[in-house]
Amino acid sequence: MDRAGVGKVCLALPGATLDHPFGDDHDAYKVGGRMFAIVGGLGGLSFKVSDIAFEVLTEDGRARPAPYLARAKWVHLEDPADWPDDELAEHLTIAHGLIAAKLPKTQRAALGLA
């Protein structure tokens, strides 16, 4: 999946927005003002995963811990095109859900997530 494909998947999720807090060459996808995925200037992709997915993906070498965000269970893919599109789309959907679940109930309702 390329940068445009990641954007298409992320922005199709409920309440998702695109921001550029780290410069125009970085795409940060957010829900409720909180990031769930980032595409870097060189095309790498980082996203939030569950504790179990973090262990599995990093131990088998499919992903590496995301710089600066690994302690929050984010993984990084150097080239998202190496992953099947449907599998990556599922991970991005899960990342969105993990972040959305931590939003206050009133905010989730306002975004149509409750």
Automatic annotation (TrEMBL):
Keywords: DNA-binding. GO terms for molecular function: DNA binding. It holds the Pfam family YjbR. Coiled coil: none annotated. SUPFAM superfamilies: YjbR-like (SSF142906). It comes from the Bacteria. PANTHER family: CYTOPLASMIC PROTEIN, CYTOPLASMIC PROTEIN-RELATED. The keyword DNA-binding applies. This is Predicted DNA-binding protein, MmcQ/YjbR family.
